[in-house]
Predict the 3D structure of the following.
Amino acid sequence: MASVTVRYFAAAAEVAGVEEETLPTTEAGATLGELRDLLVGRYGPAMARVVANGSFLVDGVVRRDAAAPIGANVDVLPPFSGG
């Protein structure tokens, strides 16, 4: 069975309570939108805020399109600020 490794950073890790987890693709879905919906369903409104304003790295490439396919690794990055 195929799987996706999801890594969480900063606020995303705080919300998830873990820095990394591996999900079967049957649960995670095939697209970024399906994975996002799963994470929001699993971790609630706080994760919804993170993913609404943050970004995803799919196999090292920034993706924002919900229809984009997920790869073997997805990083969930909260919005960053700084100068």
The helical segments are 11-16, 25-28, 32-43, 45-53.
